[in-house]
Amino acid sequence: MTERTPSPARTRRPYRLLSRRSWPEARFLADVLRTETVGGGLLLLGAVIALIWANSPWRSAYAALGTWVPFPGGHGLHLDLDLNAWAADGLLAIFFFVVGLELKREFVAGDLRDPRRATLPVVAAMGGMVVPALCYVAVILTTGGAGLRGWAIPTATDIAFALAVLAVASSHLPQGLRAFLLTLAVVDDLFAIIIIAVFYTADFHPLPLLGALLPIAAFALLVQRRRTWWWALLPLAGLAWALVHASGVHATVAGVLLGFAVPVLPSRTGRPGLAERLEHRWRPISAGLAVPVFAFFAAGVSLVDVDLAGVLTDPLVLAVVAGLVLGKTVGVFGSTFLLARFTRAELDEEITWADLFGLALLAGIGFTVSLLIGELAFGAGSAADERVKAAVLLGSLIAAVLASVVLVRRNRVYRRISERESRDSDGDGVPDVYQEEAA
Fold first, then answer.
1. What is the four-CA torsion angle of 336, 372, 42, 364, rounded to 10 degrees?
2. How many CA atoms lie within 13 A of 105 on its CB side?
């Protein structure tokens, strides 16, 4: 009897999840992660200083600093904001501008342009958004607590904080896992932007928003023509920010729209795309200044004369912690597992499900955007906002500790993979593993 030849469909190799990126992508990723790791350290420093100051005998000075208005006469241009508002509305616009650049680059030239590669981070981010929100709502409803408006608080992942935890834990995650974590955070930020714009816009005024389209269009025209005149672009960006702020839409959305306007593809001369160059220029400002300063003003939770037992059993606190620690882990890990199950994809041969579980725990670190959504949901400085701050800090700390415990156990394996991924025997600047794959 003639033996039947297997069909191509049966002999096709299964698609590998969390595999290594190409060398150009890996090099760009390394630069991004290096900057974000340093920024994460500064973020932690800002948060620790705020916590210490807010609980010291000089806590009144900390509170007074946050409510100081540097431009009291700027009401017409919406500049009469206190420092707390400038940190949340102004500095975070820089953070979201970089997010906009990163999103466009990923969709045009990065992994998200490939439907197969985009599927995993998109599905994981959706799971990591829906399940935490459901956990939050379930806890609020079952405990009879108030605060359903804060359902989106545990849906965000703070990539800088997560990378700082990896640095402290000395974890040498393989490149595939780091790339997944970064792309997951990018898609996560996209969902956060949509949530903020749709669900947390109060007192909407359409005319200023329509007016903002003019400076945004002028900004887009200049950058599309590769005209990077700072004396023109910065005033246009500032005007767009002021008009979006006046419209009632959170002003950080202006940063995202401006980031989307920047071209990604390389120029005819072979120079990197403008989005990559601007991201390289503005990411250190975002990670090293904007986010740490926001953390300094947002994380100052005073525990003086506070009933800690009452805080830890508060329904709002329990809902946020459950969403970050349980919801994020189940959402990210569960959605990835189901994707692999139904598409018959397999994890990369060097990665195990335990590694992905540790990464899902790490995704429960929700700091910057979680604190921002808490302020938008309940009002900056309100009693509920103070409980949200305590909950985000507690939930992020628990997620960081649990993730470190899981990931450090495999650190010896990670270190061996990292050494192999960086080995360059011929000294040509390209690690051997990428040349072997190309061959």
1. -20
2. 23
Sequential DSSP letters for 317-359: HHHHHIIIIIIHHHHHHHHHHHHHHHHT-EE-TT--HHHHHHH
String of b and e for 12-49 (b: at least 16 CB within 10 Å)? eeeeebbbbbebeebebbeebbebbbbbbbbbbebbeb
CA distance 191 to 125: 8
Other CB atoms closer than 10 Å to residue 153's CB: what's the count?
A: 30
- Where along the chain do its domains lie? 29-200+250-412
Report helix, strand or coil for 53.
helix
Query: What's the CATH number for 29-200+250-412?
Result: 1.20.1530.10
pLDDT in tens, 99-157: 888 888 888 877 677 777 778 888 998 999 999 999 999 999 998 877 899 999 998 88
| Nearest partner of 274 among 284, 262, 282, 256, judged by Cα | 262
Cα–Cα distance for residue pair 161/167, rounded to 1 Å: 10
Residue pair 240/215 in contact (Cβ under 8 Å)? The answer is yes
Residue with tokens 């199950």: 341
| Single-letter residue type at 411 | N
